[in-house]
Amino acid sequence: MSYAQNQAGRYLEVDGCRIYYELAGNPQGKALLILHGGLGSSREMACLQAHIPADYQLICMDFRGHGRSTLGQQPLSYARYQQDIEALLNHLGVEQYSVLGFSDGGIVAYRLAAYHPGRVARLIAIGAQWRLLPDDPSIEILKGLNADFWRQRFAGDVTWYQSANPEPHFDLLVDRVKAVWLDSAESGYPNKLVEQVSCPVLQIRGDKDFLFSLHEACALAERLQQSDLCNVPFASHAVHQEAQDIVGPVVKRFLLT
């Protein structure tokens, strides 16, 4: 079955926002929740869909404010994303599922697996931090990002967002997402909660990832109960897009085991 032929975009109202999601793959299959990165959309994960085993149903969504989901008035946080996902899964009647998340999507995946260890069957996190230490070098990088930089670096993605989002507010979205990235409260990174993750975890990172170091990936692996690490040479943060020929088969093998 072609995933593209089975896609249907829908909306769910959650706490003042319209959350966009798509269902694809096998309607009777095991659920696989696919989560994108910060300031991105579910479109950035499409490159991996051809590698997902045919016995999975894909649940792809846009975080609030991102892609085709509206932003609303509430502050953004990893906890807020988690609540939106929980509302969507409850709406769909999904009890058990696996998660494939990139960057912010992977961070939220760790939170989901920690809070609902009996529901998350498998977890794939791509370029996803699990904590933000006070001296983490990524802090200065994140602080320096702004809407103009993003427009220059990802012009096509921003243009698409402006046309696809029902209520586009890109400058405001960037400000709110930066607050998510720098959040050191309980609403932010999972930190020690990762020790509650009981399902098998596959970490994937590019060897030149400037946000998620190999040291941090290894430190995380030591805290996870079941963990494999795939460190991909020559690739950076968006390793799933840069090295799809490597990441795709690894993802497929993990989901089949």
TrEMBL record:
Pfam families: Abhydrolase_1 (PF00561). Transmembrane segments: none annotated. Keywords: Hydrolase. InterPro entries: AB_hydrolase (IPR050471), AB_hydrolase_1 (IPR000073), AB_hydrolase_fold (IPR029058). GO terms for molecular function: hydrolase activity. Residues 31-137 form the AB hydrolase-1 domain. This is Alpha/beta hydrolase. It comes from Bowmanella yangjiangensis. The lineage of its organism: Bacteria, Pseudomonadati, Pseudomonadota, Gammaproteobacteria, Alteromonadales.
